[in-house]
Description:
Chain A is α/β, with parallel strands linked by helices. Chain A contains 13 helices and 15 strands. Chain A binds a DNA duplex through residues 12, 14, 29-31, 39-47, 66-73.
Amino acid sequence: MHVASPLWNGLTEPARSVALEVLYHGPLSRAELARRLSLSAGSLTRLSKPLLDIGVLSEVGIQPENRIGRPAVLLDVVPTSRFFLGIKLTGDEAHAVLTTLRAEVIASERAPLDRREPAEVVATMSGLIGKLGDRVDGISALGVSLGGSSTDNLTVARAPYLDWTDVPLATMLTEATGLPVVVENDVIAVTEAEHWFGAGRQYERFAVITVGMGVGYGLVVHDKLVASPDAGIGLIGHFPLDSAGPLCPMGHHGCSYSMLSIPGIRSSISVALGRDVTYDECLDLAATGHPAARRIVDDGGRALGRLIALVANLTMPNKVILAGDGVRLAHVGYDAMIERLHEDRDPRASRVNLDIQAFDFFEWARGAAVIAIQNYVLGNLHP
Amino acid sequence: MHVASPLWNGLTEPARSVALEVLYHGPLSRAELARRLSLSAGSLTRLSKPLLDIGVLSEVGIQPENRIGRPAVLLDVVPTSRFFLGIKLTGDEAHAVLTTLRAEVIASERAPLDRREPAEVVATMSGLIGKLGDRVDGISALGVSLGGSSTDNLTVARAPYLDWTDVPLATMLTEATGLPVVVENDVIAVTEAEHWFGAGRQYERFAVITVGMGVGYGLVVHDKLVASPDAGIGLIGHFPLDSAGPLCPMGHHGCSYSMLSIPGIRSSISVALGRDVTYDECLDLAATGHPAARRIVDDGGRALGRLIALVANLTMPNKVILAGDGVRLAHVGYDAMIERLHEDRDPRASRVNLDIQAFDFFEWARGAAVIAIQNYVLGNLHP
DNA sequence: ATCTATAACTTCTGCTACGAAACTAACTCC
DNA sequence: GGAGTTAGTTTCGTAGCAGAAGTTATAGAT
């Protein structure tokens, strides 16, 4: 495993802010950067020069909308100047991606976790890291995400799916691979991916609701993630949404877990049908009009609509992003979801700008890579 | 009416940030300020000198916790160096306060609004402004708050209680009095008062729920108010809280208005008793054990508990502040409120830090004064 | 009492990074 | 081809910063 030499490390604060603005908001001309950062044109010449010299930025052509005057030369980060790895751990698999500085996925791999002992998981991850890392010249950082929480981005405080408590995962992985490593909650990682490189890019306030094995929630306000000790524990995992809904394993009636999660939907429909069905079967049945499945998926859609309305009413987001491997519920139960969303929303309030993401399982891993990218470019890594 | 000459206007950005930090966080020594603002000790000597000279700051004594070394001299703003007025308009009254730069109330007045025509209301307000303004040397700015919304802090876009649409209130008042005027939604004003000078001072994230003629909601995240076009229209005014609750005038069952507001509680109890009762009577009856009143107030308490839990779950605040002239509901219905709050909250989540404010009606007006103070010290006023 | 350690605060100096202004460059429109 | 317009460069003066050295004021040890 080749560890890349740092490139963004010697940057002064203003130089870093120029590089970040470009990373963040795509190709920009010097003149535009000067306006955005409230700097003079002269300062921008000065600041961009060394960034071009060391290869962080490059000139990528001319502004297409050719108005009058000298054409603007666009600057962009060189996405392939740095490479990052992201790994998402579930209870039984590790999903890994190799990405550029812009979080574009170059390659992906997955491996089963036969045993959950930290040392064994680290060994499996090292294998993935080796395989993906050998494809490029050097890796700048590794991000790991999982269902659970980490207070310092190094230690896994709690990971229920792996039965881990206080595992120094980052240290173990750094020892095994030599890479700088950051650990983060998976929903936060997906939220940051949307924030920096996804549907949340142009919004200074948005919410992410993930539907999958559980229900997760991430919030960005004033262009910054709302970080709270409670953020990692899934505060809305058992949110009351329908007092007539089915019982969840923790004893709530109609909570978000029982109404929306993959296990919740599967268990409701399996009970109704008297046999075990997969999640996709559930939604296929509902889509083709099977009465019980239709009813359960519509109830789920309504519960999701209410959840979205609650989030929209209380956090006033510019956008609400639905993501996660169970997001198909929002498609099949769309009409019911939208109906309830409108019912629970003040008619004078602005329309909820809803974005249902097509979700590939490696998106979770890409989120982990984004955490690595963020820590790298913000200068938080000191390997 | 004497208009005070500007004092904070010629300040450079770093000097302003020093003055703001002191206004914000009470008396501070130069050394402490240097640490907080990431400046050198030398810079702080330089920056504080002119602020002391022009009378914005003054030395107010020695740090009480005397450790070893030279004692620190505390700097504080001179609260009486500037005076501000705040006026809250309801549908039938104007409440006005005179405050210092620290938003301490010096005097208050109120006047009935016999007619709602903007010109007449402005005349009534001018009378209050004259009475209060003559008590001190000069007024720096006037803030006006009301139930309704203003997009530019000058024009009242909509004020249902006054039947106003697009009234250029600030301009009219400036013409009448010569003062710089800012207009703001009343709940936002109260939230900013808590943010700068109240229970929210030390928290970078908190929520305010006001209970009164309606139910209002303000949110501060990352030490900044969450401002949205939707913020002024009372998004949670008709929030679904209890599907078995009474009907509100807009046709919702058990929404926050019907369950929590003063008119909602009064109407429920009046119907149950077959006679018209005041709000205080309602709560007295409940407190002394009248069965119907007790039941209705407990239902209100439970609805409030659910609302607090929803806010806490979705915005993860460090503190939730209850305020407003109907806040007594939280006292009389306290047990029911807390019970439901815990039910709707994940057991692993941190305890909700709840603050029930003693609410005097002039608090609404003080909020308006705080909006004036903010605009003044942030340099947004150019009279 | 006197000395030492510590910390707040002041004064001075040199440097950095900024904006302003004058300039060059590249293009459009007439 | 000139006028107008905008992008980007170069140069220069300077505001405001940190850092160092010095001063002041205290507690605690000797």
